[in-house]
């Protein structure tokens, strides 16, 4: 039952222990439903994947110029989406990054059917927290969410020009 | 059953707090590396502990290579408790602050020397100017 599994997963995440949540063994997961071996274990690993992808695509990476900004935006969107999946989405269950004609296409899958934490605060009010989704919305050209029986996919397109 | 090794829970890379101490009467915390929700706690603790006892706390951000929304939350938390100055933010950090609209809230300085040389603004953080 999907709902039951989601509760179990959410309950296993320590309130202040992201590393434990990421590194937690998952013996209770049904065979075949566990994370893909290619799924990065945390936001840093996902950023590394995107960095390597962009390095392959743009050999000029590291030089001065607008490429720095493009890479920074891509890594920030990656980091926010993966962190959301790990912290609020019951765990990261899938992650892909690909270069398309329109830009960098990120697909982040998690194990929760609940909507992402999209609460936005007014920056002028200097609120604590709530900046993650704001950054995704401002930096990604398109964001879409697909709800599945056992989780959701968030697809974000980040322009590379 | 696959169990992650215990040391896998430790974030890779150098500590995010490179150094901290008093410089010219101000408390300076020098951060380094990638700052995200998995790595930022030591920096949060360093700034949190410094805030009550110092009128001005300077965060030397020159060696920060990446930061995300958890860093923004940290800045606001500290900004509420003392006069926080971000010194030498690189291109990436400056863009992060601007994208979130916090460049008008968090005071940034081009260099550590500039951050140290500015006189204190008085008790409490000044409100962000409108617009």
Automatic annotation (TrEMBL), chain A:
One GO molecular function term of this record is: ATP binding
The record's annotation in InterPro entries points to: Anti-sigma-factor_SerPK, HATPase_C_sf, HATPase_dom
Keywords attached to this Swiss-Prot or TrEMBL record, sorted alphabetically, are:
ATP-binding, Kinase, Nucleotide-binding, Serine/threonine-protein kinase, Transferase
Q: Name one Pfam family in it.
A: HATPase_c_2
Sequence ranges assigned to domain Histidine kinase/HSP90-like ATPase in this UniProt record: 41-155
Transmembrane stretches in the record are none
At the top level, the lineage of the source is Bacteria
- Segments forming a coiled coil: none
Which parts of the sequence are annotated with region: Disordered?
1-42
Q: What PANTHER family does the entry give? A: ANTI-SIGMA-F FACTOR RSBW (PTHR35526:SF3), ANTI-SIGMA-F FACTOR RSBW-RELATED (PTHR35526)
Q: What is this protein identified as?
A: ATP-binding protein
TrEMBL record, chain B:
Species source reads: [Kitasatospora] papulosa
Domain STAS positions? 28-119
InterPro entries from the UniProt entry: MlaB-like_STAS, STAS_dom, STAS_dom_sf
Q: What is this protein called?
A: STAS domain-containing protein
